[in-house]
Amino acid sequence: MPSPDFSLQPMNKPEAVTKHFDQYDTDALLYITNRPPLVFTEGHGMWLTDHNGKRYLDWLQGWAVNCLGHSPQCIQDALAAQAKKVINPSPAFFNEPSAKLATLLAQNSCFDRVFFANSGAEANEGAIKLARKWGKLNRNAAGENRHEIITFEHSFHGRTLATMSASGKAGWDTMFAPQVPGFPKAQLNDLASVEALIGEHTVAVMLEPVQGEGGVIPASTEFMQGLRALTEKHGILLIVDEVQAGMGRTGKLFAYQLSGIEPDIMTLGKGIGGGVPLSALMCKRECAVFEPGDQGGTYNGNPLMTAVGIAVLEALLAPGFLQSVVDKGHYLRDGLLKLCDQHGLEGERGEGLLRALKLGQPIGGKIVEIARDLEPQGLLLNSPRPELLRFMPALNVTTDEIDLMLELLSGVISEVK
Ligand SMILES: *Cc1c(COP(=O)(O)O)cnc(C)c1O
Q1: 279-318 pLDDT, tens digit each
Q2: Residue 351 CB-half CA count within 13 A
Q3: Which among 167, 172, 183, 270 is the best mutation to test ligand 1's pocket, defined by most ligand atoms within 8 Å of the CB?
Q4: Which of 37, 200, 242, 377 makes a 20 to 30 Å CA pair with 266?
């Protein structure tokens, strides 16, 4: 099949930024977001190539998904090898890759049991269901089910109805009302705000160890340790959503390990599949309370995706890999601090290779656009808030690629300010 010609023919519909391509009508895709008039046709490592052959240094990596960069050899090999063996015998039967990946995850974490799903939101839905089931088996003094899960302002847990309710994003409580009840919101790094919300129906506290979409805000070690002590004191569960911060992103395999605590439940997504749809719900033996019929899903633990998960996890566990994430996190931090000095910016924060630059002005959107349109090579950046840039490169990014990003970004900032 000849490769399609994506020559752009702008349509007279600027408000939606939709385009017709020669053979395909992009309006056939349901309109959900404004996309730039680009089609990416290839990706290797930290680089993406568009339909005109222009290259972009990609600091989005599918939103912290491609932890080993675009199309790494180990994922190509795992997909090809598994596709030849068996793709999906159905979740009603055991398969080798899912059992192996579950074993590896349990061996390298404080958890004993794993349920595989397809997206972060789905893993979090599973965590919410598991906590509510546990709260049904462990009732309060009045003999009632416990079901409330305390979550946090500015948190992000996904786009299903329950995970939107769990999220602390402004406006999300009314967007698709009525919302799922039972998610009171506390303030991150404020233990008293959590304690004030604990009542007789509380079953768990759920948080991102580093708030990602909220602007890369780490929970402090004292806060994580305080939460563990508080939840133990009240006999409730501690759930960490590591969909963004897990899988080596912070320099530890899991972000909860930064504070030396052991949560009861953890969810993984994004990096665990290195770019393919795979997520996981993990829990301790004591709260593995699902019974047949409680949880499932057509694709759960399918061998094609879990084979990729094995390849990714083995790469992260290779000797020296996580230390290299720590080292490059420091290198990136130092470079961002230099930019702050040079351009009078507010500062930077983050853990490992999940970092943010505080611009001090609402110029993030402008920077993203100018960086993307740079010639001859573009730079793809993310601005989750107008005054902030977020950095989530492949975990095997090189120091040369960090230097190039900093150099290009410095030029863009000079132009915008
Ligand atoms: C991205 C994200 C999710 C949602 O994951 P999806 O795969 O998009 O459903 C949930 N929690 C956190 C912390 C995330 O960053």
Answers
A1: 999 999 999 999 999 999 999 999 999 999 999 999 999 9
A2: 28
A3: 270
A4: 200
**Dist CA 389 CA 61 (whole Å):** 14
Judge whether 134 and 287 are in contact, CB under 8 Å: yes
Q: How many CA atoms lie within 13 A of 10 on its CB side?
A: 9
Q: Is the CB of 401 under 6 A from ligand 1?
A: no
Measure Cα distances from 233 to 135, 180, 191, 296 in Å: 16, 27, 13, 32
Place of tokens 């009632």: 144
The protein residue with its alpha carbon nearest to ligand 1, atom 10, reads 157
The answer, yes or no, to whether any atom of ligand 1 lies below 6 A from the CB of 243, is yes
Closest by CA position to 325, among listed 239, 259, 391: 391
The interaxial angle of helices 96-107 and 303-317, nearest 10 deg, is 30
Q: Distance, CA 124 to ligand 1 centroid (Å)?
A: 8
The domains located in the chain, with CATH, are: 15-71+320-416 (3.90.1150.10), 73-316 (3.40.640.10)
DSSP letter (8 states) at residue 168: -
Predicted TM-score (pTM) of this structure: 0.95
Q: From the CA of 65, how far away is ligand 1's center (Å)?
A: 10
Name the residue of 157, 159, 183 whose CB sits within 8 Å of the most ligand 1 atoms, as the mutation to test its pocket.
157
> Is the CB of 249 within 6 Å of ligand 1?
no
